[in-house]
Every structure is written in structure tokens, then in C-alpha cells.
Amino acid sequence: LKHFIGNNNEVDRGECSVSIDPRNMREYYLKAFEIPFVEGGALSMMTAYNAVNGVPANLNSQVNDVVKREWGMNGFVVSDAGDVLGTVNDHKYFDNYAEAVARSIRSGIDSITDDHAVSKQAIRDALKAGLLTENDLDTALRNAFRVRFRLGEFDPDDRNPYASIDESVICAPDHRQISLEAARKNVVLLKNEGGALPLRADKIRKLAVIGPLAGDVFRDWYSGTLPYAVTPLQAIRGRLGSEDRVLFADGSDRIKLKAVDEGRHAGRPGDGKPQGAEEERHAGLAPEEHGRPARKDGARYVGLTAEGKLAASVADENEAETFARTDWGWRAHTFRPLSRPGRYLTTKEGGHVTADADEIFGWFTKEVFLTDTDADGRLTLSAWDDGPIAIGEDGLLAASEGGAVKDVHGNWGGGAQAGAGAPAAFEPVVVEDWVREAVNAAREADAAVVFVGNHPLVNGKETIDRPDIALPESQERLIREVFAANPNTIVVIVGSYPFAVNWADEHVPAIMYTSHAGPELGTAIANVLFGDYAPAGRLNMTWYRSVDQLPDFMDYDIIKGERTYRYFKGDVLYPFGHGLTYSRFEYENLRLGRPSVGPGEEVEVAVTVRNAGDRASEEVAQLYGTARGSRVKRPLRQLLGFARIALEAGESREISF
């Protein structure tokens, strides 16, 4: 479980201190950890980088006093990478590592994540100075080894039930089925006006599948590598039984890049000799495919070298590389060279831009390029750390050193000086316009399904806070243009968090939401779209209409700031607990087990739920409570319990809380 505690902001988390009063701490921040420890039996957690009320999280007295003593957690606590050293380096709380390490261990840190010589020496220094005793170390070791013993790590195989589980269980059929079940239950139907969903496969001649989240399944941050993946596009094609019935537009431009001022880079990369187009060809569309004649006017276009590096080295536009450019919003773009299917542009060690990344992934997401457009439509590109992309004397594209960024171990990251020089400007030559492609597909189809959302590692992940809660401007435009072309438009949001999709909610007949739900994502979405599975997921967060409804980012006072469903009084887009179904449910015969309760007593609340629709479905019954009279501010409502139940058409069941 992580990160303990109060880690809501990511930017400056290593140096900042957040202010949390005792009531917010007890009712909100601690509660998120209390339930999995006390009710779920969790046996480990990680502390945070930030400080709380001036005290770094790895020195927080609540680790011992609350987690270990009050809640009885008898497992182990780990520090986050670098945060013990950060007590000195970043928070400046101590001026020496020995005291920082000693206080961390005595405050409940059982395992220091860094395998770092400085940390090890600090422990020795602390022992020598009397800041630590061997018993302090033994206490920490006992906590860690207790869990290792329970896991059977030191037992012979015949006493360890885990030892008999070999690799044959990986991707076993029942595991795939569980993955599919989880992905299905994860889907939330946000809006369904006029019975737009489910779609009737037998009534659809052609279906347009559109958008940057339709043809991919992205693994989330800290996810393992997906053993396989079913994309929404694949699953929809499979459900309709023919690729011809699906018109696909991925919402990405196809462009070539023409260097605006690159006369000095006309040579072949690395040898200074003139380069002929026939001598080193680069994949691109043939002239007849995009309606333009070949050009040999002395301009230079971007292509790929044999080693996969980008170079302003192609004289003929028709020989230039074509890139699929995806706009993730707030300057962030990714580029896929069409000559290398499945690959992304990235910045390598040394700063060179290459075309050999298998996915958008990494602590530093180097497949992201920050793009700026001037009044004349010319592009300048920057690497992930805002280091500008320049064209070197050898014609190769490379990133100059940009924003100084430290990794989790305190090492400085950033581009090298390979591309040192003025940022290069490029004229984008549009081969295919994504709006036109999407609109054409929508016009030809009986219905359109637009996939929007976020990439888990772009514009919002660990170390990066979201710039806004809106969709990227390009995705908003995509929804509007497709809807204008085909009013039978369904929006599917694949995302890591809530979005302010106000226009879509007002105009589009159906909207559904899912997280990045793993390898069976596409199958689950197709099952819901075509009614093979009835959705019943519920939102576990409030979906606000705008960031204007929220207080300052660093305001951690949930009560005073009136945030979350408990305290927010404004008009939300979708409330906490919201979610529709394909059936209709009725609640009746609500009754209490007793007329009143005193302090420390319980009351049973029972209700009968009936599936009044004509199809089997699940329903999530939710019980909320409110305090009518109080001398202090109390929640407007509070979730007291919920139950997800499956009912056949016409079936009733009594549930109790």
C-alpha cells in the first residue's frame, strides 16, 4: 500500500510539506489505509516522499503509533526510493545521513529501499554514534522476516504450498476468464439516452471505430508486461464477424517533416558526402497515394537511417518517412514511423531521436515529444524534458539538454549535447488529415464509436500532475466532428481518472467509461457495446465539471475545501456512485432492524431489490447516511455499505447492511 501519507500532489513531492489537521487525517487520509490493514489483513506499505505538517513521511510517528500498534499490522514498512537520503538532500530536515537513517528506522521503517552505499554507511555511522542500537535493527529485521517466513521462503518444498505452482499456470484459461470478468465489471455506463446502447450487431451494416484509444491496449504505470492484449478494434471486428463492416480511423495525422532551414545538413549522416535518394531510400507513401508529384527542389525532409536514427537527409518528399502523430494534449505528442510498424520515436542516450521504442513506457517517458506551432504553422519539437530538438552538423536529429530532472535515485537525467544548437523548425506536410478521415468514416457508418482518454504515462502519472481535468483539445474536437457527421455516436472513455466531458454529456447519446483494464480490455468493451454483458460498474470518484469547482491544488483540507461527494455542494457532471444498467431495478420494503441505536450499537438495514427489466443484469445497491444535527460540520452524505448482486429478469432478492 502506498504512499503513506498525504501524497496527493506529485510535482515537488520530494521537497514539499502538506498541511493536514487531525480530523481530516482520521476521517479521510488514514481511513484509506485503515480499511485494507484492519479488514483486509495487508502486511506491508511504503511511506511517501512528502512531509506532513513539516515532518518527512519516513519519520512520521503514525507509522508506529497507528499502523503498527493501533491497527496491529505486524508486517513490514518500506521507505520509498531515495527518501531517507532525501531527508537530508531535499527536505533539509537533518544535516547528516546517520541521523536521518537512525530516525527513519526508529520511526518504523523496516526496509530501506535504496541499495546504496551511502545508506549502508549511514547505518554503520549511526550504530557507532549511538543513534541506533542493534535491537533497533533486530526489530526491523524481525518485521520483514516474519512475512518472508509466512510466505514459506525458507521452508522445504514439501512444506511450502507455493512451491508446487510452476510457470504452467501463467495465462491459464481460468486466469484469462478472471481478467475478462474484472474488465467487464470495471465498465461504467455514464449515459444512455434513447436506448442508444446496446448496439444490435445484426442491424449494423457498417460501424465506424475512431480514436487514439481504439487500436491499442496500454499497460498502466507499475503494470507488468501484458502477456497478450485484445484491443477494442480487434474485439469489435471479431464481434461483427468481418473487417469490412468496421471503418477504422485512429485519430492520428499522417505527416512528413520538411526541415525549414537545413541547407547545411544536405550530406549523408556522418560522412559529409551528398546523399542520393536511390542510395538510401526511406519508406513513405507513393506519389499517387497522396496526390502530390515527387519534389526535388533542394529541400530536405526527415527520414530514417539504416540504424533507425532520424535525419534531415531526404531530398525527395516521396522518399521521406511518414509519421502517425498522436496528440495527447498540452503539447505532448507521440510519433510512429509507418515504415516500422509498432515502433515509436524516442530519445536515446546521447540525445539522438530514434525509431526503436516498442511502447510508450519508462520512468522518463522519452517517447513523448513536446510540440509547438508558430503563426506560420511550423513545428518545433522538444524532448520529454523540454530539451529542444536540433539538427546536428551530421544531419541527425537530437535533443539538446533540457530541463534538469532527477530520477528516483537522485541521478540527473536529460538529453545529451548531441543536438546542441538552435531548435530545428519543420514544416509539416500532411499526408492524411485525422479529422477528415474520422468524419468520412462516421458518414459512411450506421453508428460511430469514438475512443478517447489518456495514455497512463503521458500528462499524469507518478512525478507528473495533470494540467487539467478536461480531455485534450484534439479529442474534444474529434467527438464534435464525428457527432456532426453521425448523430448515432457513442463515446468510450478509456482513462486513469475522471474527465470533464461536459459537451459530450450534453449532446452524445451514450457514454461509457473504463480504466486501462488489462489484456481483456477490448473484449470487455465489445461485450458491453453489443449487449453480451450488461454493465453495472459505479464511479468511485466524483466527476466534476471543471477545475474551477476545486480549491487550490495544495489545499489538503477536504472538509473546509468541500471536496468529494461527502462535502461538495455544487453541480457535478457525474456523482460518486453513479452508473447505469441495461435493465431497470426497483427498491421496496426498506426496513430497520430496530427503531433507534445508542453509542457503539449497530442497526441492520434491509431492502428488497427487484429486476423489473426484461434481461438479466447486475445492480449495485448503495446505502448512504447523513447526520441531521451536529455542532460540527458533518458530511452531506457518507457511503455506509454497498452490495453488487446479479438478478435474472423479474427476480427479487433481499439484501441487508
Structure description:
- This protein is α+β, with helices and mostly antiparallel strands and 657 residues long.
- The chain is 22% helix and 23% strand.
- It has 15 helices and 30 strands.
- The strands form nine sheets. A six-stranded mixed β-sheet has the order 6-25-24-23-7-8, sandwiched between helices. The chain has a six-stranded antiparallel beta barrel with strand order 9-12-13-16-17-22.
- β12 and β13 form a beta hairpin.
- It is globular.
- The two termini are 27 Å apart.
- About 8% of the residues have low confidence.
Write the layout of secondary structure elements.
Layout: E1 17-18, H1 22-29, H2 31-39, E2 44-46, E3 51-52, E4 55-56, H3 62-70, E5 76-78, H4 83-89, H5 97-106, H6 117-129, H7 134-150, H8 173-186, E6 188-192, E7 207-210, H9 232-240, E8 246-249, E9 253-259, H10 287-290, E10 300-304, E11 310-314, E12 323-329, E13 332-337, E14 344-347, E15 353-357, E16 369-373, E17 379-382, E18 389-391, E19 397-399, E20 405-406, E21 412-413, E22 425-432, H11 434-444, E23 447-453, H12 473-485, E24 489-494, H13 502-507, E25 510-514, H14 521-529, H15 564-567, E26 585-592, E27 605-611, E28 617-625, E29 638-647, E30 652-656
Parallel strand pairs: 1-3, 2-5, 7-8, 7-23, 23-24, 24-25
Antiparallel strand pairs: 3-4, 6-25, 9-10, 9-12, 9-22, 10-11, 12-13, 13-16, 14-15, 16-17, 17-22, 18-19, 20-21, 26-27, 27-30, 28-29
Q: Which whole number gives the mean pLDDT?
A: 91
Count of individual beta strands: 30
Uncertain regions: pLDDT < 50 for 5+ in a row?
262-296, 403-419
In DSSP terms, counting alpha (H) and pi (I) runs of 4 or more, how many helices? 15
Strand portion, in percent? 15-25%
Q: Trace the largest sheet across and list its strands.
A: 6-25-24-23-7-8
Shape: globular
Instruction: Find the structural class using helix and strand composition.
Output: alpha+beta
Radius of gyration, Cα only, in angstroms?
28 Å
- N→C terminal distance: 27 Å
Strand count, sense and closure of the main sheet? Answer: 6 strands, mixed
Q: Considering DSSP H and I runs of 4 or more, what fraction of the residues is helical? A: 10-25%
